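for the recovery benchmark. tokens below, seq after
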């Protein structure tokens, strides 16, 4: 069974009044002036466990809308979205909340860490709000702490447990965010422009981490507008005008550890020259 199954996904928005061009919109059936924006026009694809996929497309292509649907932050106007065996498009708000908490690990461009909370406490947070399945026991404080420490160890930050975000570099903050995304053992990690606020070296470190996690069996979907980052994934899905225009396997993904080592070597030489 695929982790993700999308069939005929459409998303339309009804906007009242005049079009941005200033021209009057066509009248809708109820007589109001409105324009229908078709953000997604029938998207189909499947994601198997252990895949590392990038979603690309120019501005207005529909990738942000698709990300919101994948993350269960929005529902499609038409179509079916099955996540880890759960039909999401007809789910109620409680099921939606359960899916977001247990099935999806979110990683954002801006990290979204709590500034007055330590790295360990930031990673523990999803466990405090953990939505339990029927018959499932809750966590004790010790259990939450152990799981959070294990997640931080996975991303190489078990020596920064008591550090606040302001005491961490941008790359380290994003590692904390990735640990927080993994702590509930979700069906997949959804990363939205995860290196958008990072320099080249830190970006390569994050891509190296994603490749390591993927090798361990984690399913990752990364939304990006940068082809050089998509080259580190195993499959590239491209959207344009709300349609999926290509879905290609990457024959040989770039190796982030090699590129990071090369970047460090070149920058050390530059620093020595100056």
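predicted aa per position
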């Amino acid at each position: 069974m695929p982790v993700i199954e999308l069939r005929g996904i459409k998303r339309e928005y009804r906007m009242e009044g005049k079009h941005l061009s200033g021209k009057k919109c066509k009248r809708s059936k109820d007589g109001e002036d409105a324009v229908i924006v078709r953000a997604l026009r029938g998207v189909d694809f499947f994601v198997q466990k252990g895949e590392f996929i990038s979603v690309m497309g120019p501005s207005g292509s529909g990738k942000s809308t698709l990300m919101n649907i994948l993350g269960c932050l929005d529902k499609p106007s038409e179509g079916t979205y099955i996540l880890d065996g759960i039909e999401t498009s007809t789910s109620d708000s409680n099921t939606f909340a359960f899916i977001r908490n247990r099935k999806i690990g979110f990683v954002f461009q801006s990290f979204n860490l709590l500034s007055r909370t330590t790295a360990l406490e930031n990673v523990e947070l999803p466990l405090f709000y953990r939505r339990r399945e029927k018959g499932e026991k809750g966590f004790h404080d010790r259990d939450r702490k152990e799981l959070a420490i294990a997640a931080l160890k996975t991303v190489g930050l078990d020596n920064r447990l008591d550090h606040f975000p302001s005491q961490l570099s941008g790359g380290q903050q994003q590692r904390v965010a990735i640990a927080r995304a993994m702590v509930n053992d979700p069906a997949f990690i959804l990363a939205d422009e995860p290196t958008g606020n990072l320099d080249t070296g830190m970006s390569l470190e994050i891509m190296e981490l994603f490749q390591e996690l993927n090798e361990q069996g984690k399913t990752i979907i990364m939304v990006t507008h940068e082809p050089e980052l998509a080259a580190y994934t195993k499959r590239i899905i491209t959207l344009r005008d709300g349609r999926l225009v290509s879905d290609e396997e990457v024959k040989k993904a770039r190796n982030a550890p090699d590129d990071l080592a090369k970047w460090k070597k070149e920058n050390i030489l530059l620093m020595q020259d100056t």
